[in-house]
Amino acid sequence: MCVDIGYKSMLGPDGLPKLIPGIKIDRSLSNKDVSTPHIQAHARPACVVVLSSVGDTIADKLHWGFVPDFMRNNPEQQKKYFNQLFNARAEKIVDNTSMWSPYITNRCLLVASGVYEHQQVSFSSKKIPHYISFNTGDPLLIPSLYNPKTRSFALITRAANELFKEMFIHFVPLLHDPMENPQMNFLIGFLLLINKTSFLYSRFIISLFA
Fold first, then answer.
1. Within 10 A of 137 (CB to CB), how many other CB atoms are there?
2. CA-to-CA distance for 66 and 99, rounded, in angstroms?
3. Residues of the chain whose pLDDT is less than 70?
4. How many other CB atoms sit within 10 Å of the CB of residue 15?
5. Given this model, what pLDDT does residue 58 score?
6. Whose CB has fewer CB within 10 Å in the chain, the N or C terminal residue?
7. Distance between CA 141 and CA 50 in Å, rounded?
């Protein structure tokens, strides 16, 4: 589970516009762009995401903590399942019987400077936090699902691979440059939201961990 990220101001010319040519960023959003070293999902923060809207690639802000349609007017259910809706398990998304299935085409990318993962160790009752980021300072683009009606999203997590399984049970897949790896696996191919024109001219992050 991932419930902590870091964020640095990325809506200026050297941030998302450089990474994703042609992205549309509302000026009011850009003017309020600030760095936040530690963001926790439990606070249901409004986070910067990249998504496709009427053929354009745009930056927007959505609340972390998915609210499905059937909970929209049911605060009691939202409270009951609050902690279960920060992440969406990849294997559940493709399960037609799961609550995630209706949102399978609502794909976005959460923008972060890094993610915090917490490792359980035998010598302490407290988990050890690890901060994962690119040493180049490039943004992480984290695959997510969103609900436009409730303006909320959940990160997609997958089972940890051999490299990370001792640290994490589930962790977020990260995206890099698709042009370097055209034979993307099903998960990454399913998650990418950017339209074909933007995709050909954009740099993303395909996971070193996938």
1. 10
2. 11
3. 159-210
4. 21
5. 92
6. C
7. 8
Q: Count other Cβ atoms within 10 Å, centred on residue 195.
A: 14
pLDDT the model gives residue 26: 94
Residue 98 exposed, middle or buried by CB count within 10 Å (0-12, 13-18, 19+): middle
pTM comes to: 0.77
Q: How many angstroms separate the CA atoms of 167 and 200, rounded?
A: 35
Q: Decide if 55 contacts 195 (C-beta within 8 A).
A: yes
Query: 46: Cβ–Cβ under 8 A, 6 or more apart, which residues?
Result: 61, 62, 63, 64
pLDDT digits (tens, 9 = 90+) for 142-196: 889 999 999 999 998 876 555 455 444 344 554 444 334 333 333 333 334 333 3
Residues in the chain: 210
CA distances from 158 to 21, 80, 164, 194 (A): 29, 24, 11, 21
